[in-house]
Design a protein that fits this description.
- By secondary structure, the chain is of the alpha+beta class.
- It has a single domain, classed as Cytochrome p450 (Orthogonal Bundle).
- Helix content is 42%, strand content 12%.
- The protein is built from twelve helices and 13 strands.
- It has a five-stranded mixed beta sheet, covered by helices on one side. Strands 1-11-12 form a three-stranded antiparallel beta sheet. Strands 5-13-10 form a three-stranded antiparallel beta sheet.
- A hairpin with a 2-residue loop joins strand 7 and strand 8.
- Helix 7 packs antiparallel against helix 8 and helix 9 runs parallel beside helix 12.
- The chain is globular.
Length: 345
């Protein structure tokens, strides 16, 4: 059993300070048994080729009904509410096909000018020193995804409140219902039984891009590199771990035999830290359906900052920025991102 730093702990640290758990997990081997946040064990994969095996293994399923007894804070099971993140096989393929017209590469490309316009509008409201983590990084991805799904933008504030509330298990049910009701206002909505899937696109589109945006803007303004979007996503992937998978039969991975029901995660951030291919958006049948949109949103902000706000700068030294984990398998976000935009024109 692994005995190093807790990879699920919420630990504030400097922006440039590495997560000690990542190095410890890599040193422990290609697959490591770790104490799970909700009790019992979880097996974490730290090696890229083995991770790809996990992403395509027929005996590692996504359905949260397979989770150990007593685990809380998980998505509804596939039987309760089929979703991209809890189904496999033909059912998952059918759901991806249903989502495709809303979020495929062609539709996202057609939306590019509008995404740039949204970034320009929201950043254009900034004057003086503004903490972009206090509003922009939440509102921007929500505005983009609501606009893409044909949902009136007067729901942005309500959706933002719901996305924040859903992270609290005590408010999760009510927040989910609020987001589903917002999804029902979509002008491009699928049949009634698909509204939950629009909700999942709204929530996933906000929480993942929100975290990446802070790191990207900090890099662009404080430590510019040749390809800041790719390097940000590699070093600070929106999802540092894969979503849960559970063994439906005994599975052997890298010489380790996992029992039936074993929870399995891929350490995406740890894999990305090594030279070689990256796994920011996963791989295999569950490759992130929103990858194209997330990259467009980040590149639009990068473009708008460079062309429209060339004098914007960090209001504190880059080295003083801090990040904090969101807990569990969720990522980290900057605690604050004060940017000086100067005076309005």
């Amino acid at each position: 059993m692994y005995s190093g730093p807790d990879p699920f702990a919420v630990i504030p640290r400097g922006l440039t300070e590495p997560d000690p758990a990542r190095a410890a997990l890599r040193a422990a081997g290609p697959i490591v048994e770790v104490a799970a946040p909700e009790g019992g064990s979880v097996w974490i994969v730290t090696e890229e080729e083995l991770a790809r095996t996990v992403f395509t293994h027929p005996d590692l399923a996504k359905d949260t009904a397979l989770a150990p007894p007593g685990w809380i804070g998980l998505e509804p099971t596939a039987a309760e509410q089929p979703a991209l993140t809890t189904t496999d096989g033909p059912e998952h393929t059918a759901l991806r096909r249903a989502h495709a017209p809303l979020i495929n590469a062609r539709h996202v490309r057609e939306h590019s000018d509008r995404v740039h316009e949204i970034a320009r509008d929201l950043l254009g409201r900034c004057e003086g020193v503004v903490d972009l983590m206090a509003g922009f990084t939440v509102r921007y991805p929500l505005t983009v995804v609501l606009d893409l799904l044909g949902i009136p933008l007067d729901h942005v504030d309500e959706a933002a409140d719901a996305c924040l509330a859903i992270l609290d298990p005590r408010q999760q049910g009510a927040a989910l219902c609020r987001l589903v009701e917002i999804a029902r206002t979509s002008r491009v909505a699928p049949p009634d039984d698909e509204y939950y899937h629009l909700f999942s696109l709204i929530f996933a589109g906000q929480i993942t891009t929100d975290t990446a945006l802070g790191f990207l803007i900090a890099r662009v303004l404080g430590d510019p590199t040749e390809d800041p979007v790719r390097e940000t996503l590699r070093e600070h992937p929106p999802a540092p771990f894969s979503l849960w998978r559970f063994a439906t039969a005994e599975v052997e991975l890298a010489g380790t035999r996992l029992p039936v029901g074993a929870p399995v995660l891929v350490d995406i951030q740890g894999v990305n830290a090594r030279p070689g291919p990256e796994l920011t958006f996963g791989a295999g049948p569950h490759f992130c359906i929103g990858a194209q949109l997330a990259q467009l949103e980040l590149r639009a902000v990068l473009s708008v900052l460079r062309t429209d706000f060339p004098h914007a700068r960090l209001a504190v030294p880059y080295s003083e920025l801090r990040q904090v984990g969101l807990g569990g398998i969720q990522g980290s976000r900057l605690t604050a991102l004060p940017v000086d935009f100067g005076k309005a024109a």
